[in-house]
Amino acid sequence: MSSLLAPLFLLSALIQASEVCAIAVTDTSLTTISTAFSNAGIVPGVIPVFKPSGILDVVFTIPSTGQAVNATPGTNLTVQQTVNEPQFFLTADNTTASDTQFVIALFDPDAPTPQNTSLAQFRHLVGGGYRWGANGLLTNSSAALTEFVPPGPPPGSDPHRYMVLVFLQSQDFASKAPYILNSSTPRTNFNITALSDALGLGAPFSGTFFFTGPDTSGPSGPNTSEPSSASNSTGTGAKPTDVAGSSARSRNAQLVVPATFTFILICFMA
Ligand SMILES: *C1O[C@H](CO)[C@@H](O)[C@H](O)[C@H]1NC(C)=O
Ligand SMILES: *[C@@H]1O[C@H](CO)[C@@H](O)[C@H](O)[C@H]1NC(C)=O
Ligand SMILES: *[C@@H]1O[C@H](CO)[C@@H](O)[C@H](O)[C@H]1NC(C)=O
Ligand SMILES: *[C@@H]1O[C@H](CO)[C@@H](O)[C@H](O)[C@H]1NC(C)=O
Ligand SMILES: *[C@@H]1O[C@H](CO)[C@@H](O)[C@H](O)[C@H]1NC(C)=O
Ligand SMILES: *[C@@H]1O[C@H](CO)[C@@H](O)[C@H](O)[C@H]1NC(C)=O
Ligand SMILES: *[C@@H]1O[C@H](CO)[C@@H](O)[C@H](O)[C@H]1NC(C)=O
Ligand SMILES: *[C@@H]1O[C@H](CO)[C@@H](O)[C@H](O)[C@H]1NC(C)=O
């Protein structure tokens, strides 16, 4: 079914994206993304509501090959694919987004495992001051509140959901945030909703999520790329996700992928 629909999404995306990156995102795509969030149990399990105003692409670069890997809602990624800090690309209505700064948070609600979330949420990255570039790239200039550490689901864990949320930055974010969140703040037991409330960020503007499980094969297995878990401030986030739920989510998400890729390609060419 998704293979039949995909060309339609591509076509509509091409038509809509043919100008610049300043395109209005289709409601269909946005609805599909929020459906994927619900199917993955993220809404209401992790955040109470998710009504995105833009499409977020999270692009990792694989160290060994330099190849880019695009995370769209429900994508399965390996530990090796997610070692490097990703780039963030936003497709949104220009009139809403162009003059704004953004806050990005990447965190794991499944730490140390999807079945035992005693360390969740585990914070992998939080930063503000991201500005929207002409190609959709969100570029930051201020120091991170939490520097990126890669996913490190522990051996034996089911895949974890890794969430990336983008917020419109509030007026006093830059002055207040470092007192609430800094390099001394434990990465474990983070609460994105509490942070959003404390800093007046409101509901997420955009977001996505991907799955990463522990590496089960390959020479550079889990030993090398995992951050040591169980430590307060430098630990890894390791959490698995339930397999039955994840396949349903991924299938849903496939509807979004073609349109999203098209947006990105168009943006690059513009
Ligand atoms: C953003 O960019 C600055 C460099 O100006 C860097 O020091 C900072 O830690 C970066 N990362 C985040 C997540 O903000
Ligand atoms: C859950 O994980 C924590 C942290 O790793 C661990 O200390 C605890 O024993 C685990 N609980 C169960 C029920 O496995
Ligand atoms: C948004 O539109 C304005 C005016 O048309 C333009 O100057 C700006 O570069 C656009 N921004 C993006 C991110 O496309
Ligand atoms: C860093 O964040 C913690 C909360 O995790 C806060 O208690 C502390 O005051 C902050 N440090 C600074 C220097 O603001
Ligand atoms: C996270 O924070 C929100 C808002 O303060 C609160 O309602 C919720 O119970 C918190 N979640 C956890 C797991 O503490
Ligand atoms: C992981 O580390 C253990 C002990 O350090 C070692 O015995 C094992 O061979 C390593 N596994 C891999 C895949 O490197
Ligand atoms: C976590 O932080 C507390 C207080 O900073 C400290 O007492 C404890 O040893 C830390 N635990 C780990 C595993 O680092
Ligand atoms: C992701 O992995 C799960 C198993 O963990 C699988 O059921 C699902 O089909 C995969 N999704 C995609 C899009 O490959």
Mean pLDDT reading: 78
Strand order of the largest sheet: 2-1-4-7-6-5-8-9-3
Which hetero compounds are present in the coordinates? 2-acetamido-2-deoxy-beta-D-glucopyranose
Structural category: alpha+beta
- Count of alpha/pi helices: 9
What would you say about this model in short?
With 270 residues, this protein is α+β, with helices and mostly antiparallel strands. It has helices at 2-17, 27-39, 42-45, 94-97, 173-180, 192-199, 222-225, 243-254, 256-269; strands spanning 54-61, 68-71, 75-77, 87-92, 101-108, 122-132, 137-139, 160-168, 206-212. Strands 2-1-4-7-6-5-8-9-3 form a nine-stranded mixed beta sheet.
Description:
The protein is of the alpha+beta class. It contains 9 helices and 9 strands. It has a 9-stranded mixed sheet. Helix 1 runs parallel beside helix 9 (256-269) and helix 2 runs antiparallel to helix 8. One 2-acetamido-2-deoxy-beta-D-glucopyranose is lined by residues 191, 193-194, 197. One 2-acetamido-2-deoxy-beta-D-glucopyranose (NAG) binds at residues 230-232.
Keywords:
single chain, alpha+beta, 9-stranded mixed sheet, disordered N terminus
